[in-house]
Amino acid sequence: MNSRVPKAAFLDHIPVALTFGTSGLRGLVKDITDLEAYINVKGALRYLLSSGDILPGGRVVLAGDLRPSTDRIMRACARAIVDSGCDVENAGKIPTPALMLHAVALRRAGVMVSGSHIPFDRNGIKLGKSVGEVLKSDEPGITQQVEQVRLEEYGKTETISAFTPAGMLKAPFDLAPLDRAAEERYVRRYLACFAPGGLAGLRVLVYEHSAVGRDILGRILRELGAEVVPAGRAETFIPIDTENVTGELLDRLEGLIDASASGRTIDAVVSTDGDSDRPLVAAVLPDAGARPGTRRVRFLPGDLLGIVVAEYLSADAVAVPISANDAVEQRLKERGVFLRKTRIGSPFVISGMDEIARTTTPRRFTRIVGWEANGGFLVGSDIEIGREILGALPTRDSTLPILANLFSAAEARMGLSALWDRLPARYGSAGLIDDVPVVISRAITARLIPPGEVVEVAFEGADQVVDLTRPGVAPGALTRPVTDVWREERATLTGFFTPALGFDEIVRINVLDGVRIYFKCGDVAHIRPSGNAPQLRIYANSDSQARADRIVELGLLEPNGILRSMERAIG
User: Fold this and answer.
1) Residue 145 pLDDT more than 70?
2) Residues 383 and 389: beta-carbon distance below 8 Å
């Protein structure tokens, strides 16, 4: 909470303010009181009204996920919408991309109550403008308006306030009647663009758990011809992080297959995270293709999943976070596809796609897409598929990557695993250490990032350092003073990533978001502080899964691994 904001005299607790994370507002459920949700939504709408993004009296689309806390928070958000002079369109429990698609189509603001993939004791609020997601450039203006609303609400007496000392609404606030228009618009998007019956003959297991889009996904797959096997439906919330698919989760998928197959072949397993904006796709190997002692499910990480989608859509330009598997860069370079790397988070990917859309050099691009390592796929321009137009949807979506992978395999008359075997053989791993204060982790990366506007360099020969910062622009040699700074940076990193640990010569460094290090042998290590948690993360790519895992292991070792050594030496 901002120390300059006084505590409301009538509250019986010290409030904890919601803060922006990588994408949206997040917090513990116990801290997201009705009052805190109300303050943030009313402040955000005041910002959108003052900027002219929406007009007084307009409708705001409201939806939520299946967390136990979501209904209550939705009612507080609805009260904030009405008190802001707007009407509520209650879209119900639908995926975040379904809400965003509908809101943008009608030029309405959107409010999604969801904590995405995080545990059920937390939740969040994702805000949308009439033209798409709230971007990082909007956050300062929203924060300013939120603090103004906070002062107003905290300045009220207990008698005047609509909230109890516990921060809860005194009187129940009923949601508007359910309107399924947003859900239907989302379903029609995919039934119109993908061939009817195109998945005929495929048997797909949908791991439903507590994903808000579980019924919608099953419906779309059925209407496109697949036989859907629903499994694992849960009435309690289960957090699924598609960027951290563990062996335990894969074992769970195998168990669902065994329990649901009924002696018949299952071709694929698909699922999503809690608010259904991130996909999980796994191929199911036939018994003859599975080696003894190995799993029959093959999960493909989201950054590789996105390559298939981009090729299915014949994309000519792509924006992805710098943390993506470098197979993306390799494959797109082979295909002549323009690539822009961004900082981590969907708002940055959206900004990257917007920059591409304004680009005229080396050419103007018309089929622009982006995706994240979690598999969430974004469409930055209208793209023709057959005789239909897949409209731009610049927010993470799970349905498109699921369908594009299934249709790519079906049209090539092969299984998913065989389709994925065509991708570059690059493997990834990731991990983190806890209890690294945010100020320390930021100090580590600040010490490792040279000043100036250069964010990516290559080391060529004994002395030359080349600037690779601007994609599509011929690299140029740096001046001697700047070269010396980057050579010093490489020497510092070599002191941690040593030959004794199996690391080769450093040939390239990128500091767009953290420090990403490329080694001559093809290994990649990426150090990055968490956005708002006391954690320091490491990502790795290599030509084998064992080596990628080993790089992460070397980074996380206690007490003398690479990250702890950096903490002691630099932090």
Assistant:
1) yes
2) yes
pTM beyond 0.85:
yes
Of 204, 414, 410, 425, nearest to 297 by C-alpha is 204
**Does residue 289 have a pLDDT over 60?**
no
The helix (run of H) or strand (run of E) holding residue 20 is strand 19-20
Q: pLDDT class for 263, splitting at 50, 70, 90?
A: confident
H-run or E-run covering 71: helix 70-83
Q: Which residues are part of the catalytic machinery?
A: 116
Altogether, the residues listed in the chain come to a count of: 571
93 and 113 Cβ atoms separated by less than 8 Å: no
CA angle 253, 256, 260 (to 5 degrees): 145
Name the amino acid, one letter, at 6. Answer: P
Closest CA to 68 of 235, 208, 180: 235
Which one, of 507, 427, 499, 392, lies nearest residue 461 by Cα? 507
Cα 255–chain centre separation: 28
* Per-residue pLDDT reduced to its tens digit, 196-212: 999 999 999 999 999 99
DSSP 501: G
End-to-end CA distance of the chain: 26
- Classify strands 535-542 and 427-434 as parallel, antiparallel or unpaired: antiparallel
Q: Which domains does the chain have, with CATH numbers?
A: 19-179 (3.40.120.10), 183-420 (3.40.120.10), 427-569 (3.30.310.50)
181-193 and 399-411 helices, crossing angle to 10° = 20
pLDDT band at 1 (very low <50, low <70, confident <90, very high): very low
| Measured distance CA(308)–CA(375) in Å, rounded | 11
* Per-residue pLDDT reduced to its tens digit, 476-513: 888 889 999 999 999 999 999 999 999 999 999 999 99
Q: What percent of the chain has pLDDT over 70?
A: 96
Residue 339, beta-bridge partner list? 318
Instruction: Name the residue among 427, 550, 552, 505 with its Cα closest to residue 563.
Output: 552
Q: Tokens 């919601």: give the residue.
A: 18
Cα angle at 534 between 533 and 538, to 5 degrees?
A: 90
Token look-up 């061939």 returns: 195
| pLDDT reading at 255 higher than 80 | yes
